[in-house]
Fold this protein.
Amino acid sequence: MPQMSPLMWFSLFIMFSIVFILFNQMNFFSFKPMILKTEEKEQIKNKNLNWKW
């Protein structure tokens, strides 16, 4: 197997780093959180838990 020069390793590292960052950004910005309706918010707020220790 032929040896790679340090500049080729560095360019390969830069390329994979850029691809990794772009992939993560695409995943982050493609996520759409669910918007809760007011009724669902009230149910969450009014949930009362009785802890028995």
In short: The mean pLDDT is 81.
